[in-house]
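worker-3 :: picked Chromosomal replication initiator protein DnaA
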Amino acid sequence: MSLSAGNAQQTSSQDLSGKDQEVHMAIWGSVCDKFCREFGQNAYDTWVSHLIFSSFEGGVVSLAAPTRFVRDYIQSHYATRLNDFFKADLVGMHELVIRLDSSLQSKHREEQAESKADAQSGDSAVVTSANFEGSALDQRYTFDSFVVGKSNELAYAAAKRIAESDEIAFNPLFIHGGVGLGKTHLMHAIAHEIRRKAPQKKVVYVSAEKFMLEFIAALRFKDTHAFKQKFRNVDILMVDDVQFIANKDSTQEEFFHTFNALVDNRCQLIITADRSPTELEGIEERIVSRLGWGLVADIHPTDYELRLGILQSKAEANDKVIVPQDVLEFLAKRITSNVRHLEGALTRVMAFAELVGRPITMEMTRNVLQDLIRANDRKVTIDEIQRTVADYFSIRLSELLSDRRARNIARPRQFAMYLCKQLTNRSLPEIGRKFGGRDHTTVMHAVRKVEELKEQDSQIEDDIGRLMRQLEG
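worker-3 :: tokens ->
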């Protein structure tokens, strides 16, 4: 994901010029990157994407908003964090001001009108929200640009099947995984492919947040009929981040009836969340049950090979700067949290090199990404792994470290040894000593055993994935 380039252009040329403009463009892009990582793509698209960087004078950063509503909402919900992001990158900055710029209102209205026109046009297979921006498709998110690896191959194959087949093989398709692992990318890719292959089909892609906001607006203006027509008179409905409607009783009621109506009419549903249906908290049991009716596909955290492949693909698509292989390998090893952070890191390095006109080196990369590298350097300890595994399997820590060979104790012990090997820099003898003085060959056996079990049993692979996410998070 590259926010830097796109948002750096949203800068008032009358206030900035020359080198200052380039610097502020880069800083604004960095702030947008940080905002998106913390609050998500939907929040960025809905609110911050409409801001314009106006000026930086006397320690005051000035942003312009197109409407009073956008300005007031950002001031009450996001201004504090935006201020923190600017202070981290901009020396001497001490205040953030968001002002209303009436000259931007016409552009804002044009964007809304275009969004509404696209939604009503028969030429477009994707219906975007008429009242809230943020449901438009990203042209970069296609199947061709999605790098497939072991951690995401099931979700990718299922998405391709839906996009290319006229038959409904599973309904719904439920894709779950952590932030920035590619769930939204796959949904956009499905919509792009359907628009190309079957433009007559009516497809709605919307975030769960926007589904809720539009439902609230429909209730407020007594127009629930139009709301139902929009979301039930479709061929395919895609709802992103369904966990957002947790504890929203009225929205869940409407979502439940929308779900049933679409299934009864043999319309395809594709839903994403940050966890599996059974782990969703605050979601009614009847909805949880229906979410598991079709195919549930998990996107696991990326491994080193997949991260390197993603970086190589992104670097090859950029013809302005050359990224050395050792820099790509360094990023693949050090930025392990999610794909969004990984791509954002490479984007920052390439943007910096282009702006200052210097070749990319390892030293430059380390300097540009100091904050991100520090954030990904959180050390996981053997003690922490042991406690986490014991809690996960509901056994006592003393049992995990004991000589007991009962299956319900030995298997978690092997899991813990495997995780110690994967997540720490400790040697096998050191790991063995931390498990009651065991020999390093015992640790080797445990690692090999878990790797074999992961290949044979998807439940074990799922358990390992959850433990890794818990420890790395």
